[in-house]
C-alpha cells in the first residue's frame, strides 16, 4: 500500500522552528494537482527560490514544505493529477506517499482560514499543528474522515464493483461513516445500500491513510448473509458481480488498501472459514 515505505520513515509531528533549506521538497498543489519537474521529480526550494513556506512533515532527513500560494506552471514545472501520481512508478514510493499526505494537509490549511463559530481569521498555533481563533479561543485540528472498505465473500467468490464515474478499475464496497455509527455498522449499511445484500461475520483487516480524499480507511472482510442476489445501486455503481477467486483482476498499481484486500482473497490468504475466527495478517 502507498504508506508502506520502509526503510523510509514519515515524521509527521509539527515543527514550528523548521526552516526550508535548498534541498527541502516543495509540495505545491492547485486544485487536485501537484507541481512536478519535467522528469516527474518533486521540486526543491533550490528550484523554486525563496517564498512563504509552511512546514508539513519530514521523511527521513528531508523536510517537505507547502507554499502559502501555489506556484504557476512554467516551461520546466507542470501540474499533474494527484490520483495519477499514486501509480507513477517513476516517482519513488515514499514521495508518492508524501504527495498524498501533503494533499490532505494542503486541503485542511486551505479550508481552515476562518473560525467556523465567529468568522474571525485564524492563526497557526505556535507549538502544534492547529489553527487558533484569538477571538473565541477555539482550536481547529486537521480533519480526518473515517471510511470503510468491505470485501464481501460468498464461498470462493468475492463481490467486486466498479464506480459509475471516476476510478475505472475493480473495487470493493466503500463509503464514509455517518454520525452515530460504528465502523462495522457503516460496513453493513454501505453493502446494503449499494448491492441490497445483508452481511455477517464482519472482521477487521487493516487501515490506511488516504490523503486523496482526506480519509482514514478501515478495511473489513465479511460473509454474505442469506440471499446473495445483487440489487445494484445504479446511481453509485456501473458493475457489481460475484467473481471467482482466480478470476479477480487487480488494480494497475499497489497503492490502495482495496487492491491489497482483493489480492489477499485472490491468493487464498483470506477465506470464508477465517471470518468465523480471528485471523492475523
Keywords for this entry:
5 helices; 18% helix; four-stranded mixed β-sheet; alpha+beta; single chain; 16 strands; globular; 281 residues
Q: How much of the sequence is in beta strands?
A: 25-35%
Order of helices and strands: EEEEHEEEHHEEEEEEHEEEH
Radius of gyration: 21 Å
State the low-pLDDT regions, or none: none
Terminal CA distance reads 14 Å
Q: Report helical residue fraction.
A: 10-25%
Q: What's the main sheet like?
A: 6 strands, mixed
| Spatial shape | globular
What is the strand tally? 16
- What is the count of DSSP helices, taking H or I runs of 4+ residues? 5
Mean pLDDT: 93
Structural class: alpha+beta
Describe what is shown at a glance:
With 281 residues, the protein is of the alpha+beta class.
Textual characterization of the structure:
The protein has 281 residues and is α+β, with helices and mostly antiparallel strands. It has five helices and 16 strands. It has helices spanning 45-48, 82-85, 93-111, 183-195, 257-266; strands at residues 10-11, 25-26, 29-30, 33-37, 53-59, 62-67, 77-81, 123-124, 131-132, 139-140, 145-154, 157-163, 173-176, 199-210, 215-224, 237-244. The strands form four sheets. Strands 11, 12, 13, 14, 15 and 16 form a six-stranded mixed beta sheet that branches. It starts with 9 loop residues before the first strand and ends in a 15-residue tail after the last helix. 31% of the residues are buried.
